[in-house]
């Protein structure tokens, strides 16, 4: 027996959280980088709890930034503009992180530049096809 689409699903059917798209984040503070994979439906507070498990600082001592904007703990990553199109595994979205200092104020956001990899040794560099020494006679 066939049913019409309107009879098959509730009128306001929404995908479950299991169907939410993955987003990949690189959380940066000073020289520290933490890579996380989350769902678009993950809240900013949940991200802070993940960071707590790694850096041992409670969520209330953390402030997360997108650019120079402080992220609201109650918003989801999707609400903040992080989607599977803007935060891919090969190009994760970057979040800034600052911690509360002893005086109760949050430190200024500071992210050090990433280092460049060393130059490849000559033996690992590609040779031009015309300069190969292993040509047959």
TrEMBL record:
One of its GO terms (biological process) is transcription elongation by RNA polymerase II. Residues 114-137 are annotated as: Disordered. Pathway: Protein modification; protein ubiquitination. Residues 128-137 have a biased composition (Polar residues). Residues 21-86 form the Ubiquitin-like domain. GO terms for cellular component: elongin complex; VCB complex. Transmembrane segments: none annotated. It comes from the Eukaryota. This is Elongin-B. It comes from Actinia tenebrosa.
